[in-house]
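Moderator note: this is an archived Q&A kept for reference. The question asked for a predicted structure of one protein chain; the sequence and the answer are reproduced below.
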Amino acid sequence: MVSQLTWSHNYQPGIPWAAIMVNGTLRESTDVNSLLKYGNGQCGAWRQLLESAWGINGISSQEATVSSPGKKFLVGNWSFGMPDYANDPPYVYLLQLNLCLFGTDTRPTTSLPCPGGNLTNSNGIQGQSSQTPAEKFFTWHFIQKYNGIYYDPSYGVTYTGPADFQAKAVAGFAVPGDLPDLFRVKLPSNTVEMEINP
C-alpha cells in the first residue's frame, strides 16, 4: 500500500525521470497503475488518477494534451540573462541542457537554482509532494477537461484554455539549436502559441 503519492521529481540517483527504483528494479511511472503501486508518477499518471477518481463518482471528463506545435515550452520559473542571439530574434536566448539542469539520463537535478546557457532554472509552483519540480522543459503536458475547465492534477491548478495556460504557466518557447543539447528560447508574446486538445 502506498502511504504517500509523489510526483516523479522525487528522484533516486541514476534513475530516469519517469521511473522509480523498487527493490533494485526500474519501474516506469507513466500510468495510474504504476502511480498507485509505486507512489511516483509523471503528469500522464496524475491525469489518469484524476480521471479515474471522477469516473468512479459518475463524473465524465476528457483527457487533454497541452503542446506548442513545432517547439518545446518552458514552465515557470526561469531567470533570463543576457541573450547570446540578440541580433537574431525572436529566439534570442541560449538554453543548454547540462548535468546541472537535467542530471543524468535527461533527468533533472533537484538542486535549484541551476544555470544553463542564458537561463537559470529557479523555484516555481509545487508539484505533487515536490517543493518545486526541477524539470520544466516539455514537448507536451497531460491534463483533464471537465465542464469547459482544464484541471492540472500535477500542480493543483486550473486553466480556461490555451491562452490562460500560456499566461499562467509558460516562461518561454524553445527550438533546437546548433548542437543536440542546445536550444534557442524566446519569451512568450501576446500571440497564443499553446494548444490544448481537445
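Archived answer notes: The longest helix spans residues 43-56.
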